[in-house]
Amino acid sequence: MTQKIDKLMKKAVADKVFPGAVLLVLKENSVVFFEAYGYANLFSKLLMTKDTVFDLASLTKPLATTLSIMKLFQESKLSLDQNLGSLLPPFKKTKKAQIKIKHLLSHNSGLPDYRPYYMELSCLPHAERKNALRKLLVKESLAKPIGQDVLYSDIGFMILEWIVERIAGKRIDQFVTEKIYRPLDLKNLFFIDLNADQRLARFAATEICPWRKVLLNGVVHDDNAYIVGGVEGHAGLFGDAYDISVLLSALLSAFHGQASFCGISKDLLHIFFKRQEDTDRALGFDTPSLTGSSSGSFFSKNSVGHLGFTGTSFWVDLERSTAIIFLTNRIHPSRANDKIKSFRPKLHDVVMKVII
Predict the structure, then answer these.
(1) 0.90 exceeded by pTM
(2) Last residue of one domain, picked from the residues 137, 169, 201
(3) To the nearest whole number, what is the mean pLDDT of the chain?
């Protein structure tokens, strides 16, 4: 039966949906499918392997920033109803003071989706860029009323990263590694501090960056994360499929009360994984939209997941204890390739038919 999955993946490489990919499927905490396809780098002809490390892009939001917020919540250092005015003094006298943690996690904070901050920050010395970015976040105008419409926002997660750092007293990469990744023995989930840290790994190449004028390989693709050194709340996390599967398996076990998850309770996971009213989002995670979901047609309503711009994704069916981790380098060598949009739901449907 898994031949159908294999055939579909090989055809996608041949049809140039992506140069290469790694697909891992979990069922009841067991790996039931795990294969690599195509090339990690078209120019060097480096083959994709199961241990290839990907720029996870926006998977940073659920797998690093949201888990950090969960941990601080569990330690009674944060609550979902706390607002920016009480947490970050620079916001106190702004219109954004009443934005709550739950608004940022649910993407209904009213903040804009994106701003090219890197263009303004690139002329500053490296040591000044993070503080300069945060001043821009404080000045940022609201695009919508707080708590009403959902507008997916990188900016909200940049602010969440700031909150984690302020409350935890350390950078988010250090905090999430200490509290989540290291206890689970995850060695291939990490941020790359571009100002101090060079990682050796088998990376999947991403884009030939239009303004950096170089092929990005083991360097964060997101421009705003790059300009402040590679560590941010919306992007910057790198990882391989197996370590993501260990993380998701641990979350599933804790969700069903079978084991603890780094001190995070079952009850708290149920709060974070619940779809929020009038949205198609949980707290820090996406949920399947009613029509046209990238997860396809067979994931239950009680599912969570996320997509990353670089071509990465995961979906977890909480009812069926099933997860699909699908990592690709679809923007290699150019983001102009968007064939993955129509391919993702087809793949998820084929996998779910085979597995279920």
Answers:
(1) yes
(2) 169
(3) 96
